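Known limitations

Files may contain more than one protein. Parsers should not assume a single record per file. Below, a two-record file is shown to illustrate correct handling: read the sequence, read the token line, then continue until end of file.
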Amino acid sequence: MPPRQAEPTTEPSEERRDDDCARVRRILARAGFDTSSAEGDGLRVWAAPDGVMVGWVAREVLRPTLRIHGHEEDLSRFTALAGLREALRTALAVVLRDAGFAVATREECLLVLRPGTTPADGGGRARR
């Protein structure tokens, strides 16, 4: 019997994931967006199984709001930031699509897909 060939893996190597994250960070930096790791505040970039995730943690934006309105009962109306999050997601998606990536929404984040891939779970809307 001929030797059995190993099944090709669809999971990218750790090095490839790092390269993908670095590429997304460079593109965003050229457009004027500073980024951090998955644990940092602000605009986060981290590896995912089917691409690169981009999300935003608004702690620094909310800090002054909480200082001023912290005594009020319904803080959610001051801290929701839904419109600001949507505007940022839209701007980021345009930058990334202009760079040739397909981008899907995944909850509050963007999933930047590798060329020729679709989201593994079928979730989100992928658009080029």
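...continuing to the second record:
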Amino acid sequence: MEDKFLLGGYTADSYTNGKHNSSEGIYTATLDTDKGEVTAIEPVVKLENPAFFNYSTKDHKIAVVMTKDDKTGGIGIVDVDPETGKGKLISESMLDQSVKGSYEAYNYFDHLYYWNDLKYTVPSYVYLDDKRKMVFAANYNTNAIHTWKLDDNYQFIESYRYPIEGRGPKAVQDAAHIHFTRLLPDGRLIVCALGADRLFVYDVNDDASLTKVFEYEVEPGFGPRQLAFNENTNNYIYVLNEVGSRTAVVKYDPATGHLSRIASYSNIPEGYAGHNQSAGIRVSADGKFVYSSNRGHNSLAVYRVIDGGKHLEKIQTIKTNGFSPRDFDLSKNGDFLLCANQMSHELILFKRDPETGYLSVAQEGIKHDACVRVLEATDFLA
């Protein structure tokens, strides 16, 4: 049996320490579940720096963040032929570059912070609503939420920009730094402001404009980066806090759109004193396990969900045998987990026990330069 993943990342040589970057866009990774190994990585579409994307299975479209001619950045829509597995860019919307932004970043090789002044801005996260034909994006650099309305042919026809103010107590929280936008099951939009230590909930209007419903404050210095939830998490949302290296549990009330704090748990082992920034989070399809990645400690934290989703119990911390595990995803049947070590330019495949949630190494050293997005896509490519 074969499962599929989509891979995305950076294509510029600056992301491979000045050496030739062999990545040229979005790729398909084929997992042979009988052999327990990734057997092929093949191109889907050639794009410049497709560092994040999400897709619509219904219409075989990918919404992707991208740059263009190393001068500007924005969002593109890719149409994928499921028979060939190949895609083509059919529309794009580049951002206004009059505001470029800057931020404090960390060099994992030199172990130093540095100030990153950008020559252009590009979103960090994008989400596609194929029912209402809308796109939502988070702009870390310029501290804003972007929304677009699409026509039936996935062409961009209207856009909105919502700047967010605020900052946190840590040096990397010098501004709001919007990092994540995703629809909740009820159609509202939830947003992570990593720098402002806030989660926002919005009603989405028919024209893709937003109306704020609720503003939730996380613990100071947590830096919420991403969220994980599905139909089996009972309205509990698992919040990946990058700056604080913790996974938190919040309760969402669909009747009011409000969030309430439950608990939080450290993603790194007690006593670890090195640098760490948590990066990715996933919840298993059955809602029974949560996985968080650690850049610095270079590991995955595995949690068992208890009390009907209300609390977590850490059951495993496993090394990714590489540097800076940026993103990962579970296979369709949940028997495997594929993780991208961005800074060592390789993937690692873990065997997963669906009953216990535990991981063990199945295959490592799978070369792929500057990969920062891993998304299970078996049905999308079927």
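Parsers that stop after the first record will miss the second one. For reference, the second record is described as follows. The mean pLDDT is 96.
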